[in-house]
Amino acid sequence: MSDRTPAIDYAKSHSDAFLESLNDLLRIPSISTLPENEPDMAKAAEWLAERMRNLGFSAVEIIPTKRHPVVYAEHMEAGPDAPTILVYGHYDVQPADPLDLWETDPFEPTVRGDDLFARGASDMKGQIVAHLMAVESMINTSGLPVNLKYMVEGEEEIGSPNMEAFIEQHKDKLACDVCLNADAGILAADTPAITYGLRGLAYFEIRLQGADRDLHSGRFGGTVPNPGNALAKLIAGMHDEQGRVTLPGFYTRVRPLSDEERDELAKLPEDEAWWKAQSGSDVLTGEIGYTPTERASARPTLDVNGLLCGFTGEGSKTVLPAKAMAKISMRLVPDQTSAETETSLRQYLEENMPAGISWELINHAGGEPSLIDVDSPAVKAASKAFLQTWGKAPLFDREGGSVPVVGIIQKRLGVGSLMLGYGLPDDNLHAPNEKLHLPNYFRGIETYIHFTHEMAE
Amino acid sequence: MSDRTPAIDYAKSHSDAFLESLNDLLRIPSISTLPENEPDMAKAAEWLAERMRNLGFSAVEIIPTKRHPVVYAEHMEAGPDAPTILVYGHYDVQPADPLDLWETDPFEPTVRGDDLFARGASDMKGQIVAHLMAVESMINTSGLPVNLKYMVEGEEEIGSPNMEAFIEQHKDKLACDVCLNADAGILAADTPAITYGLRGLAYFEIRLQGADRDLHSGRFGGTVPNPGNALAKLIAGMHDEQGRVTLPGFYTRVRPLSDEERDELAKLPEDEAWWKAQSGSDVLTGEIGYTPTERASARPTLDVNGLLCGFTGEGSKTVLPAKAMAKISMRLVPDQTSAETETSLRQYLEENMPAGISWELINHAGGEPSLIDVDSPAVKAASKAFLQTWGKAPLFDREGGSVPVVGIIQKRLGVGSLMLGYGLPDDNLHAPNEKLHLPNYFRGIETYIHFTHEMAE
User: What structural domains does chain B harbor?
Assistant: First the structure.
């Protein structure tokens, strides 16, 4: 076992400085979506680059993209036999409005109780700075036992529009054994967890057209195709009575859940009452034969996100509409792909479109699902690191949402991503009074130190 | 046969004056929906009352309603053995905008070729003045052989909001043997027709609610009810594979089409190509086993008029919507009623609503279907009148749209309505360059004279 004690001791004795470092970055309002914050974006990137340079990282670069730059740095002194870890994070934050709902200035970090309140505290400056502080603790004591590359982007909160091109362009530079995605969280302050799976996304718009103009429903009702009715029939046919999606081939590449995995997921503190409370729905639905947790994270789904057709104002208008539109999205699980899902949907529409309806299918967004092997070295290392820091083994969790960069890294770099961060479900992400649970910030730094050393074993 | 020749001769020799009379009324911009035209509404009502007074009508009244008054007049000198006819019409018109699309001033009637262009020329000042000129022709020659009551309202173009209350309040005064509804048309300039059936209307809004707030489709997709999907399933289930409406009891009171009636309807110049051209749809659909004409006029239907749910802007938003709304209307045929239709729909929703969806059903509008017996004296009289004027027997037509006042008169006064007017399908009703085919105006006057005398036979 490599000697991690000096680094842990260093971290414990530098907690004040580590909090100050985080506060420094939190004071920079690096809101990626607002043009007026462009200088702050540059300032935040420079802040990170400067810290990395001071720690002796080589090749520290602020690499431009079409909008906000990526901070890249590497520390390759552990030698060719040590693993190389690519750490992903982002230095941009969401806008802070509505400002009047914040109890204190979103860009003046403030401690109240155990929490540090600031925009970006949890999502995710708190996570990326925790990692940087762990690295500082190691470099300034017994050294960094792995090779490390940082890729910290400035566009996550605006959908990472340039990330795929960036990774493709720099794929040699980014080569690694595994990615550590620090934009992650755990289930509760005292419940460490590792998210080993993420769902993908395929988001479409279906546009139907019947007659070439809106018609009077009295004069023509009963003779011509109604795209509103046609749309309803198409959407209704997308599920069967078991709550399964009927698109041809939709389940062909879905990896079945093993009994072991189901047993692990059943350990999560997410019973039916929890799901009802979280969702505000008195009734839980979905695919028959699976628990709510499985349905929301480990099984693919299809949902209407929007519908628009004909007259939607107050009262009545007897229009037989010419057009109807639906936004439909699917959450995907390995080994489904967003491209194959489009093929399935297109085939379904071709086979089921009523006569007299012309149609168009628009692909608005796609992201690939991902899983990291729970028996992989990275997951095992993280698991041990949690046990050492929190005193208990982490739960194993899959997430229902999508993290497109994970799919991109899998596709372009050929490596999985370990989601390892310490955000909490009630951290008010993207909302007023975003906070970071400070004990987790410090435990997180220690966990990153343990994880790094476990990876080097 | 009573002597109608003097009246016909009178009409022929007064065509210039009859056109001038119509022009007088067309110059008054009696737009019921615009507050600034309120004085014009009063002026138009007074114009009609004045003409009726001059013709010796008794009890000429301008009876106030909550908004625009009804012109009422009666001429009861034919005696108790003669039939009493209630003539229904309206003196209000649609707004004229967009004004820049009119070739000439909408309120300065202008003859071009065979047509008279003005707002209200066909809908329906041209029809009600034609009747008045027919009455003048009779009164000023051999006399009026029937008892006549006029009920000319000023709110048809805003949905006749006060008509049912008015008719109920004045039902003794309005007592009659039959109603002549002059707000009607024929199939083509040389194709006289009698509309003996009208569909009713039942118009609803269905509002669904799933969870108590919009949710993230990644986090919750697959676990909670989606009201958008639920709405699609409900609407899809409202039709079976034969294109029939599945609401319980929906067809119970539908009068079947007799072979004779189907033979008559088949004579209408409305083949599939005609319906395709009229609707702008390449494909005709609907209930299996019926022709397009039957489906659009003599069979009940159900259509989506509007849909709204979730995100409908550009691009994608991964929302799992809390609410979904549909506007759904049904066209009814005798002896369906709008009230029973609501019961059917409510029962369907109760029986088919997915778990976890709360719902609300709003009744926006209703109107009863109607049929007048084609063997009744009024239809026979109209048929002969057309034959005498046009030189050919009329076709027998049912209309797909609804004329609520016909249902109200049936319900409140217990009499059927004969639709007898001369508007043409291409008269640009409610549109710029509304016109009246002048030869039909004069033939219409003669037809009313013949009809009146046939009724007195």
Answer: 5-198+369-456 (3.40.630.10), 200-254+300-366 (3.30.70.360)
